[in-house]
Design a protein that fits this description.
By secondary structure, the protein is mainly α. The protein is about 40% helix and about 0% strand. It contains 3 helices and no strands.
Length: about 110
Amino acid sequence: MPEDGVEEEGAAEKAAAEAGLAVEPEYDPAAPAPLNVPRTPTGDAEVDARLERLGDADHLATDGHIEVYEDVHRGLRDALTALDARPGPPAPSPSYDQRAPSPSYGTRS
C-alpha cells in the first residue's frame, strides 16, 4: 500500500491533468540542461574543435560531464605539448665577428 502523502500527490496530479491544467514535471538537478556558455573561436582549428566538444556536456546528465571535460582537457594539453615540440625560428646571427678581438682593442697609446 502506498504512503498517504505519495497517494495524495499522485491524485492531485491526476485531477489537475483531467482539469486541463499544466502539471510541471518534477525538478531533477541531474537532468541534462544546456549551460549556453559562449565559446569564442581561437583561430586554431584543433583548439576550436576541442572547445566545441564542451557543448556535448549540454546533452548529458551531470554525472556524464566529467568524461567530456577530461577529453577536452586531454586534447588541449596535447595541443600545447605539440607547440613545444615544433622547432622555433632560427636564432638571429650575431651582428659582429666573435672570432677574435681587433688588434687595436685593448692597446693603449
